[in-house]
Amino acid sequence: QVHLVESGGGLVQPGGSLRLSCAASAFPFSSYPMNWYRQAPGMERELVAAISSTGGSTNYADSVKGRFTISRDNAKNTMYLQMSTLKPEDTAVYYCNARIRGVHYWGQGTQVTVSS
Q1: What is the DSSP string of 43-79?
Q2: Burial level of 29, CB count in 10 A (0-12/13-18/19+)?
């Protein structure tokens, strides 16, 4: 069964940085694009960043361009999200996502709180 586990969230001051990780298992990780989503309280889940299967292509939401960097290590079956210059509006639960044969799989999420 596809398994995605996020880690690395926490409380950080505005302007700070965090790196999220997503450990994947039970599917051929290197064959699939991967995504980071986030969901703030009372808001819909939104796509933050996406990365191709090889890592050669990435896309970002306008709200995080220039501040967040998505990457992956296919040898370790792990995806990352480096977040810098964090803002209070980045506060949300961040989810790792894979779409495999038309089915969306999600991790349990990791909370990121940006506050002074």
Answers
A1: S--EEEEEE-SSSS-EEE-TTTTTTEEEEEETTTTEE
A2: buried
DSSP states of 5-44: EEE--EEE-TT--EEEEEEEESS-GGGS-EEEEEE-TTS-
pLDDT values of the chain reduced to their tens digit, one per residue, 116 residues: 999 999 999 999 999 999 999 999 999 999 999 999 999 999 999 999 999 999 999 999 999 999 999 999 999 999 999 999 999 999 999 999 999 999 999 999 999 999 99
Enter the tokens of residue 79: 């995806």
